[in-house]
Amino acid sequence: MAPYAAHMGLQNVGAALRVRLPELGERMAERIRAEVESYADESLIPFSSLRESCEDNADLLLGRFAHGAEPDVGAALQTGRIRAEQSVPLADTLHAYRVGFELFWSEMVEEAHRHPEVTDAELVAGSSEIWALFGRYAEAVAAAYREASAELALQREARRSALAEALFTGALADRTTPWEAARQLGLPERGPYAVVAAAVPDPGQEPLPGIETALRRFGVPSVWRLLPDQQIGLVSLQHRDAEKMGLRALRRRRARVGVSPRFDTLRETPQALRFARLALAGLPGAGPGVSRFDDSPLAMLVAAAPAESSRLVEVTLGPLLALPEAERARLLQTLGHWFGSGGVAAEAAERLFVHPNTVRYRLRRIEEVTGHALTDPIAVADLGAALYALRLLPS
């Protein structure tokens, strides 16, 4: 801004108003409260704080007119930051500044009438100067507001992310209960809930973009975390149609997704996350799909007893797993497709792109190695459970 040549008449006006600065600040604050709705809330913006802000800004303006001082936007920057912290809309903050400037200039003009030395030309120059100052102050307010808002958003997101991580891992600090965390995350304090785990195609890329917003539109609150290999979410199922709408939203995103069983207390979140990850690991094929843990009771048994399931694998499939890698992989693949085909060798052969006799030969080889006959229902149940456990608990 070009240097302002202070005129003698307006210098006297500025000096006179400076004597009445507290009164001027109070009148500006009262006018703003009367004309800007969000400023009328005493709990949001205490009147004393508003009056002090008005005095500070008016004092800087008077210094400009009285002494030709360089514009100091420090008070405007402070106001912008404070209003952002108070969550006052930026539009209301700028409106308040305009109201304050209008009142300030009207007071300048009224005081000028008491000073015969003030010429019309000086008032015209002063009017131009005041609105140039308003533009500069408004820019400062908006810049500080946006910067503070961005910082606050990052802080809120960091806090939200930390609370979500604490719920997923069960690592909440002693001073924060799961229910307090739920309130801060916008989740209901009571279930039912479900946990979702989706495979990340590339690090940093969300497999479920916009999922939180989409669910919120249906009245379904949720909280999400993006990890290097998965996007995980905690979803409230209190809404009557939450599960149906949630599954529809998940399927539309064409990702690989696992969903935990319902659970009632947030302390169960870490276990539910494990179930969701197991459901994701058990999703067949390589394409998109949604696998619900409750769709397979066997999966629940395996996840509930990992040590016993590992022992089942060792006892039932141990000899097969001891074979050379190529043969082991071939026989396990064939056995998996045989189960997936309902025990029909011809259908398994189609899936494997081999002759049915090849499948039958491999099945006989499996019987020979494991000692379990595929004609014995109990043996088939053991092999099926062991194969499922091997897929879900590869370690």
From TrEMBL:
The positions making up the signal sequence are none
One Pfam family here: GGDEF_2
* Origin superkingdom: Bacteria
Q: Which residues form the PucR C-terminal helix-turn-helix domain?
A: 331-388
What positions does the domain CdaR GGDEF-like occupy? 178-280
Cited InterPro entries: CdaR-like_regulators, CdaR_GGDEF, PucR_C-HTH_dom, PucR_C-HTH_sf, RsbRD_N_dom
Annotated transmembrane regions: none
Annotated RsbT co-antagonist protein RsbRD N-terminal domain residues: 22-160
The protein's matches in PANTHER family, at most eight in alphabetical order, are given as:
CARBOHYDRATE DIACID REGULATOR, DNA-BINDING TRANSCRIPTIONAL ACTIVATOR ADER
Q: Which family does it belong to?
A: Belongs to the CdaR family.
Q: Per its record, how is this protein called by name? A: PucR family transcriptional regulator
Q: Which organism is it from?
A: Streptomyces alanosinicus
Species lineage: Bacteria, Bacillati, Actinomycetota, Actinomycetes, Kitasatosporales
